[in-house]
Amino acid sequence: MNKCGIFDSGIGGISVAKEILKANLFDEIIYFGDTARVPYGNKNESTIIRYSLEALEFLKNFDINFLVVACNTASAVAVNELKKEVSFPVFGVIEAGVEALKNEDKNSNILLVGTKRTIKSNKYQNFLQKEGFKNITSIATPLFVPLVEEGLIESEITDKIFDMYFENIDKEKIDIVILGCTHYPFLAKTFKKHFPNAKLIHSGQAIVEMIKNNYNLTSVNKTNIKLFSSDNPTEFKKVAKKCLKL
Ligand code: DGL
Fold it and tell me: Which CATH number fits the domain that encloses residue 144?
């Protein structure tokens, strides 16, 4: 029986869980959203590592044999520590996101958005440069996380925050926007509105490819999902189920 543990600071990782659920690769998904401690993105590295190890400890209770770190912030700083703890595969979303760009023009104008910690870690930027991409602008956009947690997906406030963060960007010229935070795919419509010519890259879709390419998993008829959170579990389940269309 293949069981995949997935965690994020909150609802964001549901955008990744949704893709993994659709792919029918696992018998069961155990999802943990650390809603008591969201956001992770402006905490320091050692705190994020500690939170990530605690999330893993919780998920281990369900005999998982795969772990997907559905949080770019934790993927930026904690994946190596997580790998040391277990003998089963651990996937971070950053490698998957970069992998999804492998066939893109290396001269593309790329806009990378993520939390402060993700942008500061330079993990995406280093991977992208190694792949030969030259035109990368990176901006930390932490306010998008509470907007999504509050369900403010399309609103005047959301547009105003977009205008504030991207006031110095020639939006028409952006070819690719890397949604470097798993909360951001929920804002895809607003990203499309502000960056009309850009392709949006979302690591949830890419991670399914990565798992398929690395492991020969026999597909199942249906993947079950169990949802947990460290605070407000009833509300969390309600919102997560709505996002997952369950
Ligand atoms: N969804 C997360 C990420 O991908 C974390 C956002 C946060 O808690 O700040 O980075």
Answer: 3.40.50.1860
